[in-house]
Amino acid sequence: MAWLKTLTIPASLDQQTVRTCLQTWLVPKRIQGQLRQGHRIWVNALPASVATVVHTGDQLRLQFIPSDFRTPTSNYLPDTTGTADILYQTADLLVVNKPAGIKAHPNQPGEVGSILNYLAADLQATNQAPYMVHRLDQMTSGAMLVALNPIVVPILDRLISSKQIHRTYYAWVRGHFTTTTGHFDDPIGHHPTDKRKRWINTVDAQTALTDYHVLRTTAHHSLVQLDLYTGRTHQLRVHLAANGHPIIGDPLYDDQFSPAIPRLFLHAWRLQLQLPFTGEAATVEAPLPVSFKADEQIEGY
């Protein structure tokens, strides 16, 4: 098994070395070294090295093999009992609109019924496979990023960690805020007594930053836009609950939770992407679920 990637050198990399190109594209150093050692680099169909100088319009061809990657194969079982709503797709990635209540990925060998299982079935006809990059909690809906080959998985991971991929959420929460905009910067770690939960200012807490903007209110609740700048487990749920505004329908953090509430009212609304290799920007939005627009019904929760 091998993956071939042919890239046209842009004007911004004219007269640069192949090494500089790979660094610019965020290809990990370990993989750069394996491409070099394996003589798996060509420029305009001729064997090349990482020291080869390239010019605008040159065709750089790279051959990747399984040993280059920590997770070379996608082993999600295809499941045709459901399908995935794809919002955006390129040769390297896609953004899917995940429904609330559906797992992002299976947790056990042989498990099906997740978005990754549905994508595995949907992509079979194109000889592609899904690779997990960006997870959403089972109860959260909205835009979720998925890689289509192992080449871009470490690149997307780096773009996320360096904040070059930005995530924006909507949530219905309890109560009213004293200011229309603000931020939470409480560090988040493991809850001291409940293994299922996270909480602020614990002994193992790590830096966490969330911005909020109040969009509208009802008598007792607020719809907020949330911009995520770090990726701690349950970050939005914890930041809001710890500051007196738990997300409606959160079974872990909402003291007024009831099984009658149909869902966790958290939706991944927008992904602002930087595309691998090209650096082009793309903004993908997942339509707001109908349940988010029913203010009077939400007020009853």
From TrEMBL:
Taxonomy of the source species: Bacteria, Bacillati, Bacillota, Bacilli, Lactobacillales
Record flagged with keyword Secreted: no
EC class (word): isomerase
Protein's organism: Lactiplantibacillus daowaiensis
Reactions listed under catalytic activity: a uridine in RNA = a pseudouridine in RNA
UniProt-listed PANTHER family: MITOCHONDRIAL RNA PSEUDOURIDINE SYNTHASE, RNA PSEUDOURIDYLATE SYNTHASE DOMAIN-CONTAINING PROTEIN 1
E.C. number: 5.4.99.-
PROSITE patterns: PSI_RLU
Protein name (Swiss-Prot/TrEMBL): Pseudouridine synthase
Segments forming domain Pseudouridine synthase RsuA/RluA-like: 92-242
Gene3D superfamilies: Pseudouridine synthase (3.30.2350.10)
Keyword Isomerase: yes
